[in-house]
Amino acid sequence: MPNLDAAFSALADPTRRAILARLALGEATVMELVEPFDLTQPAISRHLKVLEGAGLILRRVEGTKRPCRLAPAAVAEIDQWLAMLRRALESNYDRLDGVLAAMKPEQ
Amino acid sequence: MSKLTLTTEGDRHIVVTRRFAAPPEAVYRAHTEPKLLQTWLLGPEGWTMPVCISEPRPGGKIRYEWTDGKGGGFHLTGEYLELEPFSRIVHVARMHLPDPTPDNHVETRFAADGSGTLMAMRMTLPDAETRAAMLASGMERGMEASYARLDSMG
Known about the structure:
The structure holds two protein chains of two kinds.
Chain A (H helix, E strand, L loop, with lengths): L3 H8 L2 H11 L5 H8 L3 H13 L3 E3 L8 E3 L1 H32 L4
Antiparallel strand pairs in A: 1-2
Chain B lengths: L4 E5 L3 E8 L3 H9 L1 H7 L7 E7 L6 E7 L5 E12 L3 E9 L7 E10 L2 E9 L3 H26 L1
Antiparallel strand pairs in B: 1-2, 2-8, 3-4, 4-5, 5-6, 6-7, 7-8
């Protein structure tokens, strides 16, 4: 489980959200992240350290590289958000069913 | 049964479909007339929409204000871009939490389906970063809802 306080402060930064969005598409090395973000390697590494500390990404060792990927817990949070959106829409549309049924006699 | 489907497309789109047991004209009106919107577009149990401005014409304003009746609330502003009564609505909207979220571009289609209507709503976000930001803010609201549920169990 990610540390929630750390996760929220990690997510407060737009660059780190963009890095997460990039990692949502698949694993990436620091060098692969440096290019699209137009930041220095140390700057990207600092952001990755924050994300890793918050439990949002995982890193593995591959020779001299340490590729990063989205942590399953972060993916689960996104799925949970979609599930929440679904529940909100479902309760709205269930109410709308009632509204539409009541409109019928007037037509 | 009118089941809702919700799917993501690429990293910029969310597509929602739902069937309603009423003709497209009624469903379209329920999506554009303030008096009707205020009866159903409410989100969680206990929330109301005391302010609803909807001017269904190109360039027309949208403003929805929600409250939980306990001092909590937020609002949404937007503009209508295109309207084809009673089959299609295109609008942009943003939430104010209180800082505005990036614009969400929404196309909603209403197609006759037997005696009912098949609605398809496609949300397009400006880029992957925006969707990540929405997901991030959604996570926080999700956490709040979870905490609220925990509170009510205590």
